[in-house]
Amino acid sequence: MEFARPLPSYLVQRYHGWKATTYSENKAWYKRLATEGQRPRAMVISCCDSRVHVTSIFGADQGEFFIHRNIANLVPPYEQDDARHGTSAAIEYAVTALKVAHLIVLGHSQCGGVQGCIDMCKGNAPQLEAKESFVGRWMDVLKPKFETVAGIEDSAEQARQFERQAVVASLENLMTFPFVESAVKEGELSLHGLWTDIGEGGLECYDPATGKFHEV
Amino acid sequence: MEFARPLPSYLVQRYHGWKATTYSENKAWYKRLATEGQRPRAMVISCCDSRVHVTSIFGADQGEFFIHRNIANLVPPYEQDDARHGTSAAIEYAVTALKVAHLIVLGHSQCGGVQGCIDMCKGNAPQLEAKESFVGRWMDVLKPKFETVAGIEDSAEQARQFERQAVVASLENLMTFPFVESAVKEGELSLHGLWTDIGEGGLECYDPATGKFHEV
Amino acid sequence: MEFARPLPSYLVQRYHGWKATTYSENKAWYKRLATEGQRPRAMVISCCDSRVHVTSIFGADQGEFFIHRNIANLVPPYEQDDARHGTSAAIEYAVTALKVAHLIVLGHSQCGGVQGCIDMCKGNAPQLEAKESFVGRWMDVLKPKFETVAGIEDSAEQARQFERQAVVASLENLMTFPFVESAVKEGELSLHGLWTDIGEGGLECYDPATGKFHEV
Amino acid sequence: MEFARPLPSYLVQRYHGWKATTYSENKAWYKRLATEGQRPRAMVISCCDSRVHVTSIFGADQGEFFIHRNIANLVPPYEQDDARHGTSAAIEYAVTALKVAHLIVLGHSQCGGVQGCIDMCKGNAPQLEAKESFVGRWMDVLKPKFETVAGIEDSAEQARQFERQAVVASLENLMTFPFVESAVKEGELSLHGLWTDIGEGGLECYDPATGKFHEV
């Protein structure tokens, strides 16, 4: 393990600044969070993308959101096999152990993962099609939705619509999990689909009545 | 899709507050991030736990960190099979497409996933041992490290040490990815292992020279 | 060129320390900065004064801020003539080539340049009034603002207010540059005026609504 | 002045962190610096480039270096005319008012300004040749040195050598200032020429005996 390195000093400096201010001013709350455990009211599934900060957009405090972040905020369908399922594990923990009341899927504009999936669907990304591409195999989850946007000629508009479909696909796949479906039916859990425009700072919510996304 | 619901109004309100302040004050920067794409200097792998906010601890701006969050901040070993690998996809994207310079694994105290793994290793968690438990199968990744802490009698101390071992296991597994290993050897990527104490606001860094974690 | 001398040994020693620690820990990031070029999100214009460290105040990492430092953090008005304009060149490069999103003018307390301008305005500095004084001719930029503070009797308070006016003057002059004005109007650039109190560690931000500086 | 905006919140947060740690721990020193004035032992002239941090390389404390930063760390020759001379003003203040003992010119690799000058000298940059280009007119200072590197075929090597010549030109121009020349001759001031390699973390010092730069 000789490869592990000390933390860059500017991050050490910023950490000490955080400790002396934010932590220090909220010490009692942090101690309670440690002693009593977390009790988040919502789970958020968003993208790893560095431009998406759900805690910033929603002014979230420590302890409010249980957050899973993966490439393109995807939820694969419920599957029982011998494989590891990191996303499914996070959802299982949030819904069955923490009993969150809300489950929010947050998509976003300029998503590199979604763009990669479009490239695959158009036959332009042999490197992602390769069996050993982790990103390619992950984005396969979204492929079935491509037919809903295949006819859109403007490529930027097509990408924006496909990003929204990634949210819809994740919501649909969430309902294939028995524990999600039953919590939703019991009224203990509600699902929400969002899409944010990074450059414009917009936020749209999926409206089940129209099947479309509307500005909140 | 009748199950999807509108966003809770307190979140709508907070979003509008963010848009009128943070977004508005940084509009130019958000537009550039959208137009030019992200260029994060580091990837962070942390836990979904609602009490762990890496952007807060490090005063991070939008665009600085590419963040993957899963249960117990685990990196499984490199595997080539037909399964989906969400964590591996995130690492592949960060290292090969974004070419991040730092990869930070951030563990934390009071980790529910790590505690579940201890319970399994002690034979106290049949529900996690069940084949259909996503959390159980995910935490299997950490099981081989249990021998390093099995002899610790104080259960709280044992958990703290096992949480640190989760970071070490992830660092070791990272090095089984050919593209991580080669980037580290070329000096293009450095790995860092951290553990934070939620209640005390502490931050420790893994020191390869001693094999221990030290306060930064 | 016989006058050039070797570097003092205490600086050589510190450099080697930096190379073995900070550089070594961030090697991958430095290499990327060299290969891919800088992409700073902000330009800062501050004083040469040795007591003003913008990178320290803001925990800035290498690559974050494009920094121009001159006497009294002044921006002269936009001028097209045959003369060299070092400050204008730095602003042009930051805004048109690097397309920074923020432009911050940082003033400070105990500013020797601003004090010199007060002395000139009060007729107490013939040596600065002399045609050959570079400092005097440079500080002429600020003279028109003296009327805003001429009535303040307490000389320390007058100096503090004039330092803040130096920031306001620079912001106003920035808007005379066509490329700054158009970037601001397009929402691609935002301007910020700050003043820091060296002894107290205070930081104030210019508030356009009140025309005053307020603690951040 | 409606265009001036509040400071981005992540910078506000970092500032408060700095105040609670670095400032707080060094309060007495900051207060002395404010009360007694600065007494820097050296002036540094370096580039605005965000990748060049002289305070980091030399572990500099508040109060140590009087720093002027402009495009390509250039010193124009001594000139007496009606124009403003920001760089000359900074040098005059450092040498005659502060009486610094060292004057260091720090060049660096991958310098955009120097590259622009090469492009002009090769006839490839009509936009920089345009009369209204501030960067172009500023970089004219370096043009006379191009003949020393014109014969180098490898363009990267040519740029590295021209960056070093920018340091030499600045040193030579410094000696055209009567107050610099006399301070050097009196043994009250020594000049130093440095060049740093951003990616490799290297530091070279100009050696007047050989006319070359050598690793320190």
Your description of this structure?
Four copies of one chain form a homotetramer. The first copy, chain A, is of the alpha/beta class and 216 residues long. Chain A has helices at residues 9-25, 27-36, 54-57, 86-97, 112-121, 126-129, 134-139, 155-174, 178-185; strands at residues 42-47, 65-70, 102-108, 190-197, 202-207, 212-215. Chain A has two domains: 8-37; 38-215, Carbonic anhydrase (Beta-carbonic Anhydrase, Chain A). In chain A, helix 3 (54-57) links the parallel strand 1 and strand 2. Chain A is globular and about 55 Å long. The termini of chain A are far apart. The model of chain A has no long low-confidence stretch (mean pLDDT 94). At the A-B interface, helix 1, helix 2, helix 3, strand 2 and helix 4 of A face helix 1, helix 2, helix 3, strand 2 and helix 4 of B.
Please write out the topology.
The structure is a homotetramer of 216-residue chains.
Chain A: H1 9-25, H2 27-36, E1 42-47, H3 54-57, E2 65-70, H4 86-97, E3 102-108, H5 112-121, H6 126-129, H7 134-139, H8 155-174, H9 178-185, E4 190-197, E5 202-207, E6 212-215
Parallel strand pairs in A: 1-2, 1-3, 3-4
Antiparallel strand pairs in A: 4-5, 5-6
Strand content of chain A: 15-25%
The CA-CA distance between the termini of chain A, in Å, is 48 Å
User: Largest protein interface?
Assistant: A-B, 103 and 103 residues
- The average pLDDT value of chain A, as a whole number, equals 94
| Unreliable residue runs of chain A | none
Helix content of chain A: 40-55%
In spatial order, strands of the major sheet of chain A run 2-1-3-4-5-6
Q: How many distinct helices of chain A?
A: 9
Major sheet of chain A: size, sense and barrel closure? 6 strands, mixed
Structural class of chain A: alpha/beta
Tally of strands of chain A: 6
The secondary-structure element order of chain A is: HHEHEHEHHHHHEEE
Oligomer: homotetramer
